[in-house]
Design brief:
Layout: H1 19-24, E1 26-32, H2 39-46, E2 53-57, H3 64-70, E3 74-77, H4 84-97, E4 102-105, H5 117-126, E5 131-135, H6 145-162, E6 174-177, H7 178-181, H8 193-203, E7 208-212, H9 226-251, H10 253-259, H11 267-291, H12 299-328
Parallel strand pairs: 1-2, 1-4, 2-3, 5-7
Antiparallel strand pairs: 4-6, 5-6
Helix pairs in contact: 6-11, 9-11, 9-12, 11-12
């Protein structure tokens, strides 16, 4: 998707819309693959708060689509099923074409509670917001330990990348301004799509807020492929670090000071990002040792090779960005007194 410029300062500010108007211009988008056990109950709950639900069927082999349609949802079928990111993009683009102003995204496995929707709507009514992200860490004790650690790690990485604090970067329960969404250029198709959207939003100056939500963790297996999706996410992260170099080269000092605030690439920040990338790789090794069959000794060398490669790659990319940024930023040295 190729975006157009979006200026959040010209977007609507203040409580200028009533809740009824917001509801009429909002749609809930639920990407699904084989969620027949939960989808009907979820749609029934959502329809008590909002009148429009869109289910994106991402290649289900069960009766997910039929149950969703009978419950009153619009059905969008992905002609070339890939990952969650592609399903979300299809849903968001369709919502734009249908003339909706806001889209709430929820998971189809019943993890997100429809009873939290009014919290998102209340923030929309206040104005001054382009993206609202659900924050699960108020109930982090309910989250499985491994998932909690992974989410904390990813959230800290993205917070460093965009130079602002993000409470829960991996939550899929979100509310997105579709006018702002159309300004984005997004390319990923899997679980890293939500991280890419968040980074592009922060770089574009979107007004981002969060709201505490309740989540339900059941015994069913996560849709995330631990090794494949973690590796995809780390690869995407490294590409983002390289992209920072392109931004500094092509956009000039003014844009750098917006996307990369002064001091972002100081020695401590660069070390923290490199350590964070290394930590993500170590986490990948740990997940592999826990979940993969076979002797761990076969996993460790591969993990260490990835670790070394990513460290050198990240340090080299960040070093180039730092050098260029230092060259084009105005000197902060005080002027010398003239005799």
């Amino acid at each position: 998707m190729r975006g157009q410029n979006y200026d959040s300062s010209k977007a609507q500010n203040g409580p200028v819309r009533s809740l009824s108007e917001i509801k009429s211009k909002s749609v809930v988008i639920i990407p699904c693959r084989n969620e027949e056990k939960t989808i009907r109950a979820l749609i029934d709950d959502v329809l008590t708060y909002l009148p429009a639900v869109m289910v994106v069927d991402n290649g289900s082999s069960d009766s997910t689509a039929a149950l969703a349609q009978s419950a009153g949802a619009m059905i969008i079928r992905d002609p070339d099923p890939a990952g969650k990111g592609q399903a979300l993009r299809l849903g968001l683009e369709h919502a734009c074409r249908q003339g909706y102003a806001y889209a709430l995204t929820m998971d189809g496995d019943g993890q997100h509670r429809a009873s939290d929707i009014p919290k998102f709507l209340a923030l929309l009514a206040e104005g001054d917001v382009d993206l609202i992200i659900g924050d699960r860490f108020g109930q982090s004790a309910k989250m499985p330990w491994l998932r909690r650690q992974v989410n904390h790690c990813m959230t800290r990485l993205l917070s460093h990348l965009v130079c602002q604090s993000l409470p829960d970067s991996q939550c899929g329960f979100r509310c997105i301004s579709l006018a702002a969404f159309q300004s984005l250029s997004l390319h990923t198709r899997f679980f890293e799509f939500e991280s890419e959207l968040l980074v592009r939003a922060a770089q574009g100056g979107w007004r981002i807020r969060s709201v505490p939500i309740e989540v339900v963790y059941r015994s069913e297996k996560s849709r995330i492929a631990p090794l494949q999706d973690t590796l995809r996410w780390l690869r995407w992260l490294l590409r983002e670090i390289i992209l920072l170099q392109d931004l500094t080269t092509n956009r000039g000092a003014t844009h750098i000071d917006h996307v990369l605030p002064a001091g972002t690439f100081g020695g401590k920040s660069m070390k923290r990002i490199c350590i964070a990338v290394m930590g993500g790789t170590v986490l990948l090794i740990g997940i592999a040792m826990i979940l993969l069959p076979g002797p761990a000794i076969l996993v460790v060398p591969a993990g260490l090779a990835i670790l070394a490669t990513e460290f050198v790659w990240a340090r080299n990319c960040l070093g180039k960005v730092q050098n260029y940024a230092n060259k084009i930023r105005p000197s902060r040295k005080p002027p010398m007194d003239k005799d």
